[in-house]
Fold this sequence. Notes:
Number of domains: 1
Helix content: 40-55%
Strand content: 15-25%
CATH topology: Rossmann fold
CATH superfamily: Vaccinia Virus protein VP39
Distance between the termini: 30 Å
Order of helices and strands: HHHEHEHEEHEHHEE
CATH class: Alpha Beta
Structural class: alpha/beta
Shape: globular
Radius of gyration: 16 Å
CATH architecture: 3-Layer(aba) Sandwich
Oligomer: single chain
Strand order of the largest sheet: 3-2-1-4-5-7-6
Amino acid sequence: MKKDNMPQVARYWNTIAQDFDTIYTGEKSSFARFLDQWLRKDIFGRFDWVMEHAGDVRGMRICDIGCGSGRFVAEFARRNAAHVTGVDVAPEMLKLAEKLIEENGAADRCRFVEADILNWKTEETFDVTIAIGFWDYIMAPPERLRRIRTITGKKFLSAWPRFWTWRMPVRKVRLEYIQGCPVYFFRKSQVERMITEAGFRVERCDTVGKLFCVEASVV
């Protein structure tokens, strides 16, 4: 059995935290912003998809697994979720997330946990859980999906990088062979099977750019 790679993932995201967040802030050259809109438009597409399919979150408890710099957390708070928890393995990302929430005046309704979801000790359940930009780096999704199922009360939203798009070999070379961060890709049937076997019912699986975006409910 291969050794879990989360330490590598955490190191990678700690290293690029500031640079990655400029995709959202736009604090870069106009040409770099143009490249983000062209090459990374899936990042914006998945954000819009999640907000659409999360629905009315007023009064709900939400958990963002692999929350990164807190952009989804902040938006859910803005939409009047009762409480939002962000979980991530990269402390540098969580520093950015905490700063964002402070700036947005939502610190009283948000919290962040430095942990791998697999090892996070909590008895809490959430109305909605999301895992976006997460499965790209997960070698063994089933065990983490089962753990997510135990904390999900109603709805689970997730995004999965599609197998055999033109971006796949580019990301594989750049991330895995140059920057030392493993990256994985999935077929639709594989994604739906893993989510179903974890105890969810797949309600829809949409193709959003080079991603599969899946809405699932608790069985």
